[in-house]
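EI: anyone free to look at a 169-residue chain?
SC: sure, send it
EI:
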Amino acid sequence: MRFIGIFFRALRSLTFNKLLKVFSIGIRHPLFAFLYTYASLKAFAKAKELYPASSSNSGIGNAFRHAYWCCLVMMYFCKISSPEKALTWCKRLTAMHEDLFPNKALETKMDLHNNRVGMDYFMSLLQGVHRQFFESSFFIEELQKKAKYAVLITSADEEVDRTKLIYLE
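SC: here you go
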């Protein structure tokens, strides 16, 4: 029930043009739109459970949430499509998310970087696990390790290792 409230609060915050953009994605690929939304809600809940103090701000929990979210999106998309198409759509939708719900430049860098960490991590697992057999639990332990060693950034100009999660505070 809480998820439905989160979903509708997010939709209410959008302008008419942004709503059109969201619905155009849903019309072009309704199953991806549904799975993307489901992954968003699951990632939010898991991050809130594991990192209650920092899942909604720019902390380590938020870094975990973004990487886990992308792993879930990729997992769900790969169950109905090829890994290449899943990756293309995951990049498109997560970038669109940043456009729809804009942040300051440093927060956007953090979110996009952590999204990429999640996508890269998922893709690295494809060699060992058939895409139909992935489960959400596959990602949690390794992403928690990455969160433990996340890098604090203070400037959008900082170069960061592409395999490490980053956070702001």
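EI: The two ends are 30 Å apart (CA to CA).
SC: 👍
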